[in-house]
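Database export, one record per block. Field names are fixed; values are copied verbatim from the stored entry.
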Amino acid sequence: MDLDGDGKTDIISGSWPGPITWFRRDGDKFTGGETLKHADGKAINFANGSHPFAFDWDGDGKLDLIVGTTNGEVQFLPNVGTRTAPVFGAPQPLAAGGKNIQIPSGCAAPVVADWDNDGRPDLIVGAEDGSVVWFRNDGTRKAPRLAAAQTLVPPSPSPWRDDKSRRPGEWGVRARPAVVDWDGDGKLDLLVGDRCGGFEARPDANAEDRAEDQDATAQLPALRKEWAAAYKEFATLSDTPEPTGAKALEAHRLQVARLRGRVTRLKDEITRLQDVRDRYQSGYMTHGYVWLFKRITPAK
C-alpha cells in the first residue's frame, strides 16, 4: 500500500485506543510513524479497535480509508487531500443491503478486493467470532453499492481459550483476512490471521536473566521490612505536634523531610525490583496462526 504515491510501499496500523499510524517506507526500513489526520489537523480517532485498509473507494485516484471498529461498524473516510499529501474527511458508515454495516460479533476487519472478478471492488470483513463475510459491489467502480453479506468462512468452531481445547484444523476468533491468489490457480483465496489459543508459560531467560531474577527476589523481603519500619517512623513523626521553638521546629521538619525521602527511595527501589521479578514470572500467553482458506469454485 503506497499511501502517498511516492512509489514505495508503506504500512498503516490501527490501534485499540483508535488512532491510525502511518509508517512511511524509507529504503529497506520504515520511519517511526505519524498519526493520520483529518483535514482540520485533528488525529483520526473516532472508535476503539480501529482496523484500517487503504483503497481508492470512490475512484478519484486518491487512496481513502476503510476502517473497521471493535463494535462492528465499517466506516469510509474519503481522502480530501491529494494523492501525495493525504488527509481525510469525517467517517461515513458504509451500508450493505440498505442498512449500515454492523458485524454482530464485533471487531470488524475490512479489506477491499474484487472477489467475483467483475471489475468492481467488493468489501470483505473478518469478525470477532472467526467468520469472514463478503459484501458484493452491485454498484459501479466510482459509486459502490454493497449487497447484503454472504458468508465465506463460518464462525470458529473452537472455544479457542487454550490449546488443549482446540482440535486440529479449528481456526480461532478475531479473524483478520487478506485476499490473494495464494496457489496461482487464478482464483482468489483467503489468508486469515486469528487469535486461537493460550498457554501458561515463562518468558525465555538466559543465565544472566535468571541471576537478575534471583537477586531481585532475594532483596525484596528485607527492603519491604526496611520500608515498613521507615514508614512507621515517618508516620509517627508526622503525627507529632510540631515544636514551638525555631530551632526545634527546623530540626523537626528536616527529620520529617529526611524520613519522607527515605520512604520514597525505598518504595522506588521495591517497585524496580518487583518489575524485574515480574518480568520473569509465568503468565498466560495468547497466540494465533494464519490459516489458508483455499478457493474451490468462483463466486456466484
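Remark 1: The chain has a mean pLDDT of 91.
Remark 2: The longest strand covers residues 146-153.
End of record.
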